[in-house]
Write a structure and sequence with these properties.
Blueprint: E1 3-9, H1 17-23, H2 30-47, E2 52-55, E3 70-71, E4 74-76, E5 84-86, E6 89-90, H3 95-113, E7 119-125, H4 129-141, E8 146-151, H5 167-183, E9 189-192, H6 195-201, E10 207-209, E11 229-234, H7 243-251, E12 258-263, H8 269-278, E13 282-286, H9 290-297, E14 302-305, H10 320-326, E15 332-334, H11 356-368, H12 373-388, H13 391-408
Parallel strand pairs: 1-2, 1-7, 2-5, 7-8, 8-9, 9-10, 11-12, 11-14, 12-13, 14-15
Antiparallel strand pairs: 3-6, 4-5
């Protein structure tokens, strides 16, 4: 093993998934958990051994979001032989946001104080203030430890599933973003999802762009022999992400053999239900487990992400659902976001403009795909991402980043 790596994660350990599900008011968002699992796998393949996870479970606050007021400290192994810690904290609303960083630091401090002869690296997933404060404190005590932050979102652009946000939550988010900025001086390097994000965060410090990791476990595609064209969207149901536009575009298609499957939760759910009542071809599935969504996808003809290139935040975003779609071998429709590199353009089917009519026409033409051009493009996309955007390739970038930082220290 080249480095002694600690990873600050936000996942639900496999051994606790059923318990957490039974105590949660909503099912968990799987995309972030899958992203972390893939990147950890990639780091370990390149570091010739398992890293140590210090995990803070991403559960909602007690009492409305989760049944437990206190999350107990526990231990787990993400791979055989690993010794990982699930950090305990008070889960009571407001209190959890102010004090849980203390528990994170205490756990990481013990790791930092040990010496096994290997150079230590501390990697934090996201710019949560709990993690940036920990990085600051560790770096002050152990300046030789390499610190890296993985930024999948900028704090000021973190999307919320609520239309309105409480005053207290707004104050917290502003304070959290401030803490992230304040403590950024203790971060040696960044892993970012877009070049524009690097320009904002890195400030001449080393960085690597890891826009996403392919989904190698995608189920085998099932061929439809019933003449039905199936289209799927899976994700947050937010108007600003284009879900209502997608439903309207689909409803403009007169062909009775088209179906639209929508999986997820969010503010637009009631509107979607109303539209599904009027158009029986629309199937609202609610929020499903990740494997259930993948199984539905494997029977579909089109995967679509209707998020448009509107707003500053698109420069700092590479939707994980885009990478998952490209991994499938199923034609993918999406918009050209500012954060998407040109190398992806040959694999994504872009609407020619932002109108509902343009999206509707593309859904219909790709659905019919009489020339099989869209399927050929999808097969090429799958082959490309599996070869170039797999966990080992992307993990290699992070190990290279560590090397670049160590050279400068």
């Amino acid at each position: 093993m080249r480095y002694d790596i600690a990873f600050l994660s936000l996942i639900i350990p496999e051994s606790l998934k059923e318990e957490v599900k039974s105590k949660s008011s909503h099912l968990m968002e799987d995309a972030a958990i899958v992203w972390q699992n893939h990147i950890i796998e990639g780091i370990e393949k390149n570091n010739d051994g398992s890293l140590k996870m210090f995990n803070m479970m991403p559960v909602r606050a007690y009492p409305g979001g989760y049944k437990d007021a206190f999350i107990k400290k526990s231990f787990f192994s993400h791979v055989e032989g690993a010794e990982d810690t699930n950090i305990g904290f008070c889960n009571i609303k407001i209190i959890k946001r102010i004090f849980r960083h203390q528990n994170v630091y205490k756990e990481v401090r013990d790791w930092a104080n040990t010496n096994n002869g290997k150079e230590k690296v501390l990697i934090a997933y996201t710019l949560f203030h709990e993690y940036t404060i920990t990085i600051k404190k560790i770096k002050e005590r152990h300046p030789d430890i390499t610190t890296i932050a993985i930024a999948v979102d900028l704090p000021i652009y973190v999307a919320t599933s609520r239309k309105k946000i409480s005053r207290i939550a707004k104050v917290y988010e502003e304070w959290s973003a401030y803490q992230s900025r304040l403590n950024s001086q203790y971060i040696d390097g960044y892993v970012v999802v877009t070049k524009q994000m690097a320009e904002i965060l890195s400030k001449n410090r080393p960085y690597k762009i890891v826009e996403g990791i392919c989904t190698s476990e995608f189920p085998e595609i099932k061929k439809n022999r019933d003449g039905i064209v199936r289209i799927i969207y899976a994700g947050l149901l937010l108007e600003k992400f284009g879900i209502i536009k997608l439903v309207d575009a689909f409803s403009m298609i007169p062909d009775p053999n088209f179906r639209l499957f929508i999986c997820g939760i969010g503010e637009a759910e009631s509107i979607i239900r109303e539209k599904a009542e009027k158009d029986k071809r629309i199937r609202f599935m609610g929020q499903l487990k990740r494997q259930e969504v993948l199984e539905i996808m494997s029977r579909c003809n089109i995967i679509v992400n209707p998020r448009e290139n509107v707003g500053e935040f698109t420069k700092y975003s590479f939707p994980s659902k885009n990478m998952e779609a490209l991994s499938s071998g199923i034609p993918f429709i999406g918009y050209k976001l500012d954060g998407i590199p040109e190398e992806y353009d040959k694999y994504i089917n872009y609407p020619k403009d932002e109108t509902v009519e343009s999206l509707s026409g593309l859904l219909y033409s790709i659905g019919k795909d009489e020339s099989k051009e869209a399927k050929i493009r999808a097969d090429l996309a799958k082959s490309w991402v599996l070869s170039n955007k797999n966990s080992e390739k992307q993990g290699e970038k992070i190990l290279a980043l560590i090397g670049d930082i160590r050279k400068k220290q």
